[in-house]
Specification:
By secondary structure, the chain is an alpha/beta fold. It contains 14 helices and 8 strands. A 4-stranded mixed beta sheet has the order 6-5-4-7, with helices on both faces.
Length: 318
């Protein structure tokens, strides 16, 4: 198998192994004698990796993940906030935040606006600013100060949704489905606001995203049902966004890749047994939301949510 096969030797002190075994030290020592008689101790000299396994399971899994799927240096497309189609005031506040955090030095690995800003589909008064910052944990305090200033500068023009993650968490594969999708989009060419020259990211494939969708969709369904129980003009935005997200995850599970709410809902309505949604366009819904006319668009959105939830329940019925 050549380089496809890697030998990993896990080592831990005798005291640690006794503590973990729940058996007397004499029993562990007897097992060690049997293993050594078979040459187990000689494997370390042949191993590609020797790991001290006296720590936590989290630390062990992180090491194994980096061996199985090593991170790679990624060529990312860097732009300024003014290149994302944001309003001037939002772009200026974002530029100030980026400059402030970038000045913290090499501990800050990446800054990006993900989701609709990266797709060029951000809508003032409707869309969130989903911010991703990859930085060492030691920089968290200063980044929090910059975030406080960022929020103050944005005032009521936009809602900020920051995600702070360390490089180690990424390379250890500790990714939520949404974070995995954001990284995949960056690797597919969505722009970033700052990237260190040697930034390393885990490779996220479409197959992995499809599996992540299977894990995330049940949680989205539960939230959508919760929102449906008290549907009203004030919940229109959340109901609509969770409907779109549920459809997007459903499509990913079927290896269909759509972007943009209107296209996502249209593609999902072609699923077997799921009829077309009679939902106004995103432009109509977002305008109604901003202008205080949510009552006019709430009814078709609620009807579409009910339609989707009934279909989903039928698909999984025993």
């Amino acid at each position: 198998m050549g380089n496809l096969l890697q030998i990993v030797y896990l080592d831990a002190s005798f005291a640690v192994r006794v503590g973990r075994s729940g058996t007397p030290a004499q029993a562990v020592a007897a097992k060690d004698e049997i293993k050594m008689s078979r040459g187990a101790h000689q494997v370390a000299a042949l191993a590609d990796h020797v790991i001290d396994n006296s720590g936590s399971i989290a630390a062990l899994r992180a090491r194994l993940q980096r061996i199985a799927a090593p991170p790679i240096s990624t060529a990312l497309r860097v732009t300024t906030p003014y290149g994302l189609g944001l309003p001037a005031a939002v772009a200026a506040s974002t530029a100030d935040f980026t400059d402030a955090v970038r000045a913290y030095g090499p501990g800050v690995r990446l800054i990006a606006l993900t989701g609709s800003p990266g797709e060029g589909a951000w809508i003032a008064g409707w869309s969130d600013l989903d911010l991703l910052v990859i930085a060492e944990h030691e920089a968290t305090g200063r980044i929090q100060e910059a975030l406080d200033q960022y929020r103050a500068d944005l005032s009521d023009t936009a809602t900020l949704g920051p995600t702070l993650v360390t490089p180690g968490e990424l390379t250890a594969g500790r990714l939520t489905p949404r974070l995995a999708f954001a990284l995949h989009q960056l690797q597919q060419g969505q722009p970033v606001l700052h990237a260190a020259p040697d930034v390393e990211l885990p490779t996220v494939t479409r197959d992995e995203l499809a599996l992540a969708a299977v894990r995330e969709l049940p949680q989205v369904i539960l939230i959508m049902r919760r929102l449906r129980t008290h549907a009203g003009p004030g919940t229109l935005r959340q109901l609509y966004k969770h409907l779109v997200l549920a459809c997007r995850l459903l499509l990913r599970e079927h290896h269909q890749w759509q972007s943009g709410p209107d296209r996502i809902l249209a593609a999902a309505s072609r699923m077997p047994g799921l009829n077309a949604f009679s939902v106004p366009s995103l432009a109509e819904i977002s305008t109604a939301w901003r202008d205080g006319g949510s009552e006019n668009t709430l009814e078709p959105v609620v009807a579409a949510v009910d339609q989707f939830l009934a279909w989903y329940a039928a698909q999984l019925a025993a």
